[in-house]
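User: structure tokens for this one?
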Amino acid sequence: MKAWQMQQSGDPWEQLQIAEVTLPSPERGSVRIRVEATDLNFADILQCQGSYQVKLEPPFTPGMNAAGTVIDAGPDSPFSPGDRIIGPSLIGYGGYAQEAMIVDEQAYLLPEGVDATSVAGMYVTYGTAWFALHHRGHLEPGETILVLAGAGGVGSAAIQMARAHGAMVIAAAGGPDKLQLCRDLGADHVIDYKTENLYEAVKSITDGRGVDVVYDPVGGEYFDTARRLLAWEGRLLVVGFASGAIPQAPANHVLVKNYSVVGVHMGGYRERDPAVLRRCYAELFDQLAEGAIKPFISEVIGFDDLPAAMQRLATRQTTGRIVWDPAR
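Assistant:
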């Protein structure tokens, strides 16, 4: 079968190559699926570059997650051929291929009547938002949240979920098209990074008080601005570093304003507390099947379009979620 592979670490839009690959028979704890949809994640880019927390030795097929139909299952697997599932890929045998290996104990059956594209589009982003807002950030109805990179994948999910939870949402993004998207997703207020001063705009919106929660998948310079916008006992949710720069929080400022800097590493729960993950996805899949949440998927791309799409994602030229369909 065909797969995209990294023969050496580097930028995936330069180093990805199509290869003919034969997957091994599934061992205990894994299943082999025919891939129907795989989401594009910034973490996949970092892994290809060799700068992610989990480092892979080339050659490997990237794609941390995949949705599809089980072809073969290892001994005592909870899944059988024909089951449609989504889950994290086995290291080295990722989702950017016609077939992938999935860790079965961390996978979930797709909701009845829901297509793989929709599930792939919400799997990481809405899972991240659920953990950030509810499990780690303890967002309460009536509180005010600032969502950075609101037009991106994790940002757009956070806007929808925070608004549905009864919070007032301030979304920051760059450019009029992205601002309109944030409005369409339910943001109460929008701020343009490119033309407005983020600090002054948030202070004006909140009458000088600041915000209860900051959802930050960007890092870099915006982290420093965002921490100064936190109200007393606020929570700064560290979701990622799309800017490429890892910021620092001065402890004296944390102490004086009595706020919390909270890490959001959803993947860490797979080994440490899988019960929380099961609760997260049980709630999200119910909401998806009921139409209560609707992931914003800006593009569904075909097999050959992966490298260019990853470059657009890396340079922040995308909105919402990009999903890869190997059959296209």
